[in-house]
Task: inverse folding
């Protein structure tokens, strides 16, 4: 029987295109200190630190966990580095949770970050390889063809992507930490923005952000902090190869298996009905309808209808990305952890302007690579 | 020496640090077959003995069945565009003029598409299902690399029916 584990402290930076006032160490420390203060703890109370970020090649800073150990109070303590591409923020939190659930540690600090202004992520994701044509233009170039395939398969009208782009940016207006605050956002502004990877326009893609996220996770007998704990009801990770014959990139098997696993742990049989809110990794607008289907919030092919109906809007029956999501802040390595952190904030009742009233049970999801890594957790205000 | 203190000048915010990386790559036995094929102007793949799927490039094992792929298969020079995007984003080191069409090309006889550049067609006329053929460099310029394939272009055949390639999306 695993130990119960809860989120007892959360912290995040104000995500921006350039945080010129801090080094990477300063950035992660800012989020970590905020999480410790929220948990009403000091560095000395922490038993272990788990840190994650996207590829080292982004900032050209190899094995940053070595240099960041002192800034995170990890000297003399166990420290782990996690990396699962864009899903890393989620899987980093899961590794931390498993250290508590296994009974090994009582309080674990988990941190994730990216400093995209120090980085050239487009280049790092597009390096020439001898066995592939040099065509890939960053993540958008990889995902845009799959988005086109989804539109063809589902028959979704092209304005659905713009609806998501507007909805998440409107949500971000409620979130003081969000990178993008586009007060005038509307369908026309998205439509008028530059076509980057046809069919994806500039405002249907996530920004490049500097930012960090941190959480303190604790065992049941070590709970502290200024807000009630967010209890972890389930954790799951899955992976699949980038390429195999018959691979469904629109509805990946690893995503379906991951949600089936985490739902079974948390007793979820009807996600749309049982969850009060969800934070899901949507870096490009069309990934909302795609993941609605992959996560079982509707039947296959109906994701776009759910988006169109307004069900996923802030005042809908199942708000997705009330924080503004990845479309509004994308410090890549931290983006997955922010999904996990935001749902913890929701069930703790500390989300402020973007608090969904009465949120008690919530899903956090992150994906990464070529849709080949998935990590998810379910958190609730009640003990599991 | 300046009389200014460090406080007067504020923090140093950004130092650009160019890094150049040169890597060696050992393709291994299976991928060598693919690369040697390119050197001869041929696409070489391998069939899985269990599921019968043909993988291109040759990869030595089937990722689904976990068994060695030992049967070499020569693929056609023509295929179908299953899906695509039009890249309009400049980035450091880009070698192709934007906008360009980046397509998933499913060669006839293969069960896996790969990424290919489509040329000789305006970017607003590309379609899912379009039939294309590979255009190779001159015979004396062939090397064991994908640089041997200049690009793909429409071959004039009618578009493939959606039903024939939808399982490859």
Result:
């Amino acid at each position: 029987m695993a130990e119960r584990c809860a989120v007892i402290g959360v912290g995040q930076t104000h995500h921006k295109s350039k945080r010129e006032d801090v080094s990477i160490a300063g950035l992660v420390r800012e989020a970590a200190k905020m999480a410790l203060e929220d948990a009403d703890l000091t560095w000395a109370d922490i038993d272990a630190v788990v840190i994650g970020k996207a590829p080292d090649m982004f900032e050209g800073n190899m094995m940053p966990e070595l240099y960041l150990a002192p800034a995170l109070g990890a000297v003399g303590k166990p420290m782990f580095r996690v990396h699962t591409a864009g899903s890393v923020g989620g899987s980093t939190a899961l590794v931390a949770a498993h250290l508590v659930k296994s009974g090994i540690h009582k309080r674990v600090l988990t941190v994730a970050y990216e400093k995209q202004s120090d980085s050239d992520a487009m280049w790092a994701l597009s390096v020439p390889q001898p066995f592939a044509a040099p065509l890939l233009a960053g993540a958008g170039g990889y995902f845009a063809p799959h988005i086109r395939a989804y539109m063809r398969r589902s028959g979704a009208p092209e304005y659905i992507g713009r609806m998501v782009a507007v909805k998440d940016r409107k949500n971000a207006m409620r979130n003081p930490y969000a990178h993008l605050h586009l007060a005038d956002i509307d369908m026309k502004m998205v439509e008028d923005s530059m076509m980057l990877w046809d069919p994806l326009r500039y405002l249907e893609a996530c920004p490049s952000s500097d930012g960090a996220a941190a959480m303190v996770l604790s065992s049941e007998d070590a709970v502290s902090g200024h807000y009630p704990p967010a209890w972890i009801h389930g954790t799951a990770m899955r992976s699949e190869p980038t390429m195999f014959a018959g691979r469904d990139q629109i509805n990946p098997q690893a995503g379906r298996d991951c949600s089936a696993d985490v739902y079974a742990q948390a007793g979820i049989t009807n996600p749309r009905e049982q969850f009060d809110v969800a934070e899901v990794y949507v870096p490009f607008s069309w990934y909302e309808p795609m993941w609605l289907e992959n996560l079982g919030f509707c039947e296959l092919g109906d994701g776009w209808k759910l988006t169109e109906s307004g069900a996923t809007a802030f005042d809908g029956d199942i708000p997705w990305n009330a924080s503004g999501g990845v479309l509004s802040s994308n410090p890549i390595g931290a983006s997955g952890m922010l999904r996990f952190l935001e749902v913890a904030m929701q069930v703790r009742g500390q989300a402020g302007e973007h608090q969904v009233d009465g949120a008690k049970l919530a899903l956090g999801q992150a994906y990464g690579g070529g849709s080949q890594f998935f990590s998810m957790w379910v958190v609730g205000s009640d003990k599991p | 020496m300046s009389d200014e203190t460090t406080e007067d000048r504020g923090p140093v915010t950004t130092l650009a640090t160019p890094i150049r990386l040169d890597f060696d790559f050992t393709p291994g036995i299976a991928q060598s077959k693919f690369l040697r094929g390119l050197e001869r102007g041929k696409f070489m793949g391998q069939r899985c003995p269990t599921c019968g799927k043909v993988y291109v490039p040759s990869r030595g094992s089937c990722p689904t069945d976990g068994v060695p792929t030992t049967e070499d298969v020569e693929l056609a020079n023509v295929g179908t565009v299953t899906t695509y995007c039009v890249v309009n984003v400049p980035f450091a080191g880009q070698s192709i003029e934007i906008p360009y069409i980046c397509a998933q090309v499913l060669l006839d006889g293969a069960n896996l598409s790969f990424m290919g550049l489509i040329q000789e067609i305006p970017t607003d006329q590309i379609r899912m299902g379009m039939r294309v053929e590979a255009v190779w460099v001159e015979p004396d310029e062939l090397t064991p690399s994908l640089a041997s394939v200049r690009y793909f272009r429409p071959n004039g055949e009618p578009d493939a029916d959606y039903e024939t390639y939808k399982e490859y999306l």
Summary: The helical segments of chain B are 6-9, 28-39, 162-165. The longest helix of chain B spans residues 28-39. Chain B touches chain A through 53 residues (CB under 8 Å).
